[in-house]
Amino acid sequence: MSTPDYLPRRSGPVPPPPVQTPGDAQAWASTRPTGDTTRLPQPSQTPSLPPDYPPAPPAQPTWVPVQPEPAPVQPEPAPVQAQPEPAPVQPGPAPVQPDDASEAPENAVDELEQLVEVGGEAVPLDEPGATPRAYRVTFLRTCKSEWIKLFTLSSTWWVIGVTVAVTVGLQMVLMSSTRFLAQRPNTGDMPAQTIYATNSVTQLVQILQLILGVLAVLFVTNEYSSGQIRSSLTAVPKRWPVLAAKTLIIALVGYVVSFVTYYGAILAGWLLVAGLQPSTLPVGWAIVDDRFAASTVKLVALMSLSTTLILIFALAVGALVRNTAAGISVLVVVLFLLPIPFAYLNWGWVEAAQHYLLNNAQVGIYATSPLGFVTSLWVTAVWAFAPLLAAALLLRVKDA
Prior knowledge:
Blueprint: H1 22-29, H2 108-113, E1 115-118, E2 121-124, H3 139-151, H4 154-182, E3 194-196, H5 205-226, H6 228-235, H7 240-273, E4 286-288, H8 294-321, H9 324-337, H10 339-344, H11 348-353, H12 358-363, H13 372-397
Parallel strand pairs: 3-4
Antiparallel strand pairs: 1-2
């Protein structure tokens, strides 16, 4: 720090402080070391100093000790309540094991699979609160699954409705034409005939077979087009029960629907000719009410049997081609188009072979045929089940 210009300068170890009064100079002189001859300034020579000199030392900060905050008091944990020990489980009586394996019942496995665990106890599946532990894939359950698939589709009901409406409507049209001929004036130029309730119903068989055949094809091909067949085959790894269940369901539904439709057509058509009086009929004409005769029931049953075999054939074709359009096309060709060229060829072997075509053979089941009933039945059955076996083999060796 440099000395201001207005203060005297000296060389030495300790410069004297400025003296303002004689008393201060004497007090300072008494503290000088011995031999220090430094000339002190006289009071008359003391320069004037600013009133604020020497400057006051800077104020020292006052440090206040900070008291540490007390630690928060932790609440004491609640005392742990002692849990009562569970009562010891008393072991039940040991099951009686048969001395010989042959003494076990044959349906023991089936009975065990029908039991589930509810609260540690085995109860049947049909009891409230029971949850299935294990289901075994059976043919009956597969049939139930296929039944649900068929009748949860709106197309099934549409096809059945169209089948009934078309068959009954055509029968009424044919019977109305018969009534028109019977009411014509008696000119004697019409051959004698007898009006039965079953007149013209056999002409409707092929129409009904075609409509229900489309349903049989769709029953298989719809699963392939939507990919649902993969789920079906995953649930039934053996695969062939799926095709067998479809065959059984379509055969049952086809037989019932065709029987009801054929019989309903007979009853509806009779309403149009029931009012004819024998006295007003042409010469040689007669009218017979055979609606509930045994021969009528037999005719309807045989027509339904023939229709059922056609539906099995259509189902097998759909399982082979796995395509809706292709399956329906094959059905139409075999039923309607294939007999046409055989009818116009005069070769001997062609005339003999045409009786074994599907359309001609199935007619012999319910009507007169050169093959007879038995031959017509087994020929039609071969047409139905041969492609079905091929479809089962294809289903086993080829992925969906």
